[in-house]
Design goal:
Blueprint: H1 19-49, H2 57-80, H3 86-112, H4 133-174
Helix pairs in contact: 1-2, 1-4, 2-3, 3-4
């Protein structure tokens, strides 16, 4: 009796990621996530110290930035094994894009929104006729909070744009548009 041998050949598709752009994206997103994580953790500790309520945006952005750092660590692991697939990157970037965009919108409302917004307190100056140490300390703390909130807002804009860019780059890698 004759036996038939079936040979299957699996061909693995190699994706060519642009190294410079990928490294730049990873660095900027790691910096953005770290800054946002630090700023919102600091603002949460200030709220706790003053025994004030914590707006939902603070723990939300702490969680989102931590998720982004975990996503970057996963990407680095996949890159080191040469198994970074565009589908994984598009899916993760899209989920993070939606979360970052939500945080960006709420941060802009908290910073520049209607009455009681953070930015409305940023322009106040201490009374120069009777400057005491407590008034100066309060002014410096207020200035620090305003600066931190503005920095977080700026890095949220950068992070949101870079996540959109990563989705486009992963799509281009999938189509082999890079040389």
């Amino acid at each position: 009796m004759a036996t038939t041998e079936i040979i299957t050949v699996q061909r693995r598709r190699k994706y060519h990621w642009p190294e410079a752009q990928l490294n730049f994206w990873l660095f900027i997103m790691l910096v953005s996530s770290s800054v946002i994580l630090g700023v919102f953790a600091y603002l949460t500790s200030i709220q706790n110290t003053l025994r004030l309520g914590i707006p939902w945006i603070l723990p939300f952005m702490i969680t989102v930035s931590a998720l982004c750092i975990v996503f970057i660590i996963i990407l680095l692991g996949l890159i080191s094994q040469r198994q970074l697939l565009p589908g994984i990157v598009v899916l993760g970037s899209f989920i993070l894009f939606v979360l970052w965009l939500t945080g960006l919108i709420e941060t802009s409302i908290q910073l520049y929104g209607p009455s009681g917004a953070v930015n409305s307190y940023c322009g106040s100056r201490p009374n120069t006729q009777s400057i005491d140490s407590m008034q100066t300390a309060v002014w410096l703390a207020n200035l620090s909070i305003c600066t931190d909130f503005r920095a977080a807002f700026a890095f949220e804009i950068v992070g949101t744009i870079f996540l959109l860019w990563m989705m486009v780059m992963a799509y281009q890698v999938n189509r082999d548009d890079f040389d």
